[in-house]
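Researcher: Next sequence.
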Amino acid sequence: MIESVLSQTAHERAVAGGLPYSGAMTPPEAYNFLQTIEKAVLVDVRTKPELHYVGRVPDATEIEWMTWPDMEVNEDFINELKASGLSEEDPILFICRSGVRSHNAALTAHANGFHQVYNVIEGFEGDPDANQRRSKVNGWRYHGLPWYQS
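Model: Next structure:
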């Protein structure tokens, strides 16, 4: 039941936003989806320094969308996604700092034949507040979801 509600809400966001992929979920929705759907996988597309210094999500698959330090798109992204053991049928949720790189990763995965692709809007750190500080307005950490620092 929760799967269909979460999928439907995510799909409605995708339709409203004109997104070609399956949907967009908030961090709490994504966490619930990951806890409910056995094959669902969270792919964190942040850079290695971000993962190390800002924090990681337990059990997330980590594949950089853009590589540090030049911040160019990882040309091997799809190959790395496939090499991680994910199939085109697995539900995949992409997360980054704020939802922008993960959106682009979701677009690319969808364009390369992955059928159940979701973006985690708000991302890990969320939007900046009035003082330009993240994790104070929204995002994975703001919502108190599991994470750890390296």
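Model: Strands lie at 23-25, 41-44, 61-62, 66-67, 72-73, 91-95, 116-120. The radius of gyration is 14 Å.
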